Amino acid sequence: MIDNNFWFALGLTLFAGLSTGVGSLMALFSKEFKPRFLALSLGFSAGVMIYVSLIEIFVKSRESLTAFYGERLGHWATVASFFGGIAVIAVIDKLIPSYENPHELKSVKHGVVDGEDKKLLRMGMFSALAIAIHNFPEGLATFMAAIADPALGISIAVAIAIHNIPEGVAVSVPILFATKNRKKAFTLSFLSGLAEPVGALVGYFILRRFFNDAAMGVVFGAVAGIMVYISFDELLPTAEEYGEHHIAIGGLITGMGVMALSLLLMA
Prior knowledge:
The protein is mainly α. It has one domain. Helices cover 83% and strands 0% of the residues. It has 10 helices and no strands. The longest helix is centred in the first third of the chain and has 35 residues, at 35-69.
C-alpha cells in the first residue's frame, strides 16, 4: 500500500532534481553571469540545509530511535546514523576524480573554458554522471522527509533545488563549448537531475518493507549527515569562490533565519 503523501513527496523530489535544468538554461541563455547572486543563493541554501538538518531532522531521528531502542542506545544510534550518512556521501565524493567532480566549477566561472573539445566533452559527460550519483541519496533524503512531514519536505526540496542549479551549469557549459549544441547540453543536464526521483523510488520500494521507528530514525539521521556534508563540502566553498566571504556568510545566516522562522510558523 502506497503512503498518503507518496505522490506529493515524489513531486517535490522531481522538482528538486530537475532544477539542474534551470541551471543549464541560465548558463546557455543568460547574457551576463552574476557570481555574487550565485554566491548568495548557495550560502542561503547551505544555511537552510544546515539548520533543518541539525534542528529538525536530527531531532526526528533521535525521537524515533529512542522510542525504539530506549534513551541511551537510541542516542548512540542517532549519532552513528548521522556520521554514517556523512561517511556514505564522502565515499561517493572520493570515488569521483576531482577534474570530473561537479563541485569543481573553476573552469566555467567566467564563462570561458580552455582546452580541446574532446576533453571538454569528457568533462561534461563525467560531470553529468557524477551529479547523477550525488543526486541519488539527495532524492531519497527529500522523499523520506516529505513522506514523514510534508512541510519539512518542502523546505528540503527548495534548499536542494537551489544547490542543484550550479550543478546544471557544471554539466551544460563544457558540453556546449565542446559540441556547440545547446539542445544536447541542456538534455544531458536535465537527465542528470532525474537521478533524484529515481533514488527516491528505489529507496522507498526497497526500504518500505522495513519501515518502523528504527528504520525511519536511521534514515533521518543519515539524511541529516548527508545534508550537512553537502553544505560544508559543496555549497559554502563554491559560494566563497564565486563571491565575497561576507556575501556567502550573509546568505548562510539568512537561510538559517528563514528556515527558523518557517519552522516556528508551522509549529
